[in-house]
Amino acid sequence: MRAQLRPQGDAEWLSLYIAGRLAATVVAAALLAWGGVGGLDVILLLYGPISTAVLVGWPALRRLPAVWIADALATLGLVVFSDDWRSPFYLMWLASLALPAIHLPLRRAVLLAVGASVVYLAVAVIGGPVPGRLQLVSTETLAIHITLPLLLVSSLAYAADSLRRLSRERLERERLAIQAERRRIAWELHDSAKQRIHAAHLLVSSMQDRVAPDLAGVVGRATIELESASSDMDTSLAELRSPLEGRRLDDALRLRASELAANGKPTVAVHGSAPWLPPLVSAHVYRIACEAIVNALRHADASAIDVQLTGGDHVFAVSVRDDGRGLPIDKRPGATGLRAMHSRAATIGADLVLTNPVDGPGTLVELLVPVDAAEGGPE
């Protein structure tokens, strides 16, 4: 699985993070007001809400280690600038440690916790009112300031790690449950429905030379339909297995594209990469994309099919475009493939749109998957 640093319940963590940063800013403002606020203090206080707004507005920044380091150094600089290690900006510095605490693996987060305490001890020694001296009011005050980073980072990291492990276990249980249900359905189809179709095929085939000439065509057609039903049943049984089998979604789509265009005609190209999605969501996305490709091959007489995978912070988009005949005005009777695609999309809360592109021939199939709704585990 990719992106193992991403915590679960990202929206809840974000709400907690915003509340912590803003609360730290309010406390700093109150402490400065108690001792007398200068014009420069007001400017320094603006760092809290402005930096919070930036991190909320650009989610990608929240996962960059360089941004974590810059934020921690900036807030630590506010502490040093105040010329007192008991600075009103101390809580703002603590809040800056929350992002790496919940994103880093547990062991690295513990190292961060220890390192943060050591760094603040160094600031207290060399950055206080009298460089090189702590100017202690009480040993308890120093102990609290040094211990809080260790406790805060360790606690957040442990909570995030526990949620990640619980989510992995839940996803594994879901995978096993789906696998067991697929196996049960496959057994039932194979042992009952397929056997009945096979028996019906034998009975109808035995009648081909025994019926009147005007019925021979009907019997022959029935035989072909039963053969097709048996073939479809075999395909359904094969597809009841997990289509990805532990592979990444984009890798599985590229492999399927190479299978469908083994001789290079038509061309089927897959571009981009997919974010982590829960197994059930990935399976449905894979089936929808494959169905769109197969439809373009079977019904649109396409010579080129382009599959684009575009990941975002909130939506993962899959587009399948071909240069074929385009969508028919009237739907084909019995077009079960399109109904299955829409049903799969609805199951995972995604939007599926089929259109004729305005800038050229063919058909454009767009699937928009809400990433936040799909996330239930590490990527």
Give a verbal description of the structure.
The chain has 379 residues and is an alpha+beta fold. It has two domains: 10-169, no CATH class; 244-379, Heat Shock Protein 90. The chain is built from 13 helices and five strands. It has helices spanning 10-35, 39-45, 47-57, 65-81, 90-96, 98-103, 106-126, 139-206, 213-239, 249-260, 279-298, 336-347, 371-374; strands at 267-272, 304-311, 315-322, 351-355, 364-370. A five-stranded mixed β-sheet has the order 1-2-3-5-4. A hairpin with a 3-residue loop joins strand 2 (304-311) and strand 3 (315-322). Helix 1 runs antiparallel to helix 5 (90-96). The protein is elongated. The N and C termini lie close together (5 Å).
Total of helices: 13
Task: Tell me the distance between the termini.
Answer: 5 Å
Low-confidence stretches: 1-8, 373-379
Q: Looking across the biggest beta sheet, what order are the strands in?
A: 1-2-3-5-4
How many structural units, i.e. domains? 2
**Rg on CA atoms, Å:** 31 Å
Name the helicity range.
55-70%
Count of DSSP strands? 5
Class of secondary structure makeup: alpha+beta
Strand and helix map with partners:
Elements: H1 10-35, H2 39-45, H3 47-57, H4 65-81, H5 90-96, H6 98-103, H7 106-126, H8 139-206, H9 213-239, H10 249-260, E1 267-272, H11 279-298, E2 304-311, E3 315-322, H12 336-347, E4 351-355, E5 364-370, H13 371-374
Parallel strand pairs: 1-2
Antiparallel strand pairs: 2-3, 3-5, 4-5
Helix pairs in contact: 1-3, 1-5, 4-5, 7-8, 8-9, 10-11, 11-12
